[in-house]
């Protein structure tokens, strides 16, 4: 396995989209910066702090584009991410996955190393495990209670009596309650933007109601954290919310396009692939990017427009009409026209290169060790940015 380090490549010596080995993960830094500026500006207008989720990028280089002034508050989905970003100078971190008791010692090690860490729980049992560990005298992370705002996954309903029980147990055991956190995961079921403002309202209202109940029971609740990429872009009023989290916004993907959050031209991530064969009798073109490069994610399968394993573009990132990766095996992708299309299959020669826009940027990114950086329609690869892996 190749070990990648951040590399800035001199213009004269830079590889290009014509010369890098495929499949390769391509990141358009101009679109990245544009997407970041769009959401930052929107949240500034709403008067709420931003805690971006770096699980999509898993890259210090990308995180530094989020915070050109240095570092700032981030959200992570694994303790390995927390350790990695802490090593790069990020010290205000929320670990937004339910805390397994056996990971408490590792979380405490981050706190001991100077990280202001928040952890997420939604049960009295997790609270008891934190309290038991605190008896050893270690510095403890702050705690956020997960709130279920839409029945999507974990968390407590705002009216669940366990909400106050958890807070009571933490307080009695000397562990700091930081606040509440929720995620409107069901916003991903919306289409063409319809229902997203209402999902954002429901997300906000659930978090605020939970915070009110905690405060009425005598507990401080300084953090009211909400966020998903769809609701972050469609929220109308975030009064009372202290911070917003979002992750895939920086790259966007075909799922976000289908939900109605972004245009195809906003997608910053693609997989570069090479044409390796033809099956004209089947209407197929074969490429060297299968599901190991694109991922198995079929997140648009239930959308009105099914994008297969990804939307096919020319080398500059311009989509062909109705051309998708229709099927994939481990290292082969099968390009074909979308069912029912009246478009013409393009003539792509052996060795010609295409770019595949992914269904789910997080899943596709996870298949690769590094980004090759381009800007806009340019072909020069100006840098290699490594990605981290692990849990």
UniProtKB/TrEMBL annotation:
<feature type="domain" description="D-serine dehydratase-like">
    <location>
        <begin position="268"/>
        <end position="375"/>
    </location>
</feature>
<dbReference type="GO" id="GO:0008784">
    <property type="term" value="F:alanine racemase activity"/>
</dbReference>
<comment type="similarity">
    <text>Belongs to the DSD1 family.</text>
</comment>
<dbReference type="InterPro" id="IPR051466">
    <property type="entry name" value="D-amino_acid_metab_enzyme"/>
</dbReference>
<dbReference type="InterPro" id="IPR029066">
    <property type="entry name" value="PLP-binding_barrel"/>
</dbReference>
<protein>
    <submittedName>
        <fullName>Alanine racemase</fullName>
        <ecNumber>5.1.1.1</ecNumber>
    </submittedName>
</protein>
<dbReference type="Pfam" id="PF14031">
    <property type="entry name" value="D-ser_dehydrat"/>
</dbReference>
<dbReference type="InterPro" id="IPR042208">
    <property type="entry name" value="D-ser_dehydrat-like_sf"/>
</dbReference>
<dbReference type="InterPro" id="IPR026956">
    <property type="entry name" value="D-ser_dehydrat-like_dom"/>
</dbReference>
<dbReference type="Pfam" id="PF01168">
    <property type="entry name" value="Ala_racemase_N"/>
</dbReference>
<keyword id="KW-0413">Isomerase</keyword>
<keyword id="KW-0456">Lyase</keyword>
<dbReference type="InterPro" id="IPR001608">
    <property type="entry name" value="Ala_racemase_N"/>
</dbReference>
């Amino acid at each position: 396995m190749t070990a990648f380090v951040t590399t800035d490549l001199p213009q004269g010596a830079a590889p290009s989209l014509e010369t890098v080995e495929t499949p390769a993960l391509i990141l358009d830094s101009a679109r990245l910066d544009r997407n970041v500026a769009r959401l930052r500006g929107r949240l500034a207008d709403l008067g709420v702090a931003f805690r971006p989720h770096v699980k999509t990028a898993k890259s210090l280089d990308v995180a530094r584009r989020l915070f050109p002034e240095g570092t700032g508050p981030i959200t992570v989905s694994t303790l390995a991410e927390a350790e990695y970003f802490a090593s790069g100078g990020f010290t205000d971190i929320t670990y937004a996955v339910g805390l397994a008791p056996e990971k408490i010692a590792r979380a405490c090690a981050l706190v001991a190393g100077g990280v202001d860490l928040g952890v997420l729980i939604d049960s009295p049992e997790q609270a008891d495990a934190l309290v038991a560990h605190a008896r050893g005298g270690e510095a403890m992370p702050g705690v956020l209670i997960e709130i279920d705002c839409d029945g999507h996954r974990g968390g407590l309903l705002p009216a669940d009596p366990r909400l106050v029980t958890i807070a009571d147990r933490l307080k009695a055991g000397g562990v700091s309650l930081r606040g509440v956190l929720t995620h409107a995961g069901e916003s991903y079921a919306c289409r063409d933007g319809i229902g997203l403002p209402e999902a954002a309202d429901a997300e906000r209202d659930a978090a605020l109601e939970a915070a009110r109940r905690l405060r009425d029971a005598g507990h401080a609740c300084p953090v009211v954290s909400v966020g998903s990429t769809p609701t972050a872009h469609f929220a109308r009023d975030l009064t009372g919310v202290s911070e917003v989290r979002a992750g895939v916004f920086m790259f966007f993907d075909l799922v976000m396009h289908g939900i109605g959050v972004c245009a195809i031209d906003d997608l910053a991530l693609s997989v570069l692939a090479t044409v390796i064969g033809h099956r004209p009798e089947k209407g197929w073109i074969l490429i060297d990017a299968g599901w190991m490069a694109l991922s198995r994610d079929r997140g648009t399968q239930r959308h009105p427009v099914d994008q297969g394993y990804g939307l096919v573009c020319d080398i500059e990132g311009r989509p062909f009409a109705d051309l998708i990766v229709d099927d994939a095996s481990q290292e082969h992708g099968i390009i074909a026209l979308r069912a029912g299309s009246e478009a013409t299959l393009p003539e792509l020669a052996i060795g010609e290169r295409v770019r595949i826009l992914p269904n789910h940027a997080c899943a596709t990114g996870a298949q690769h060790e590094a980004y090759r950086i381009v800007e806009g329609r340019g072909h020069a690869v100006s840098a290699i940015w490594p990605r981290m892996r692990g849990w």
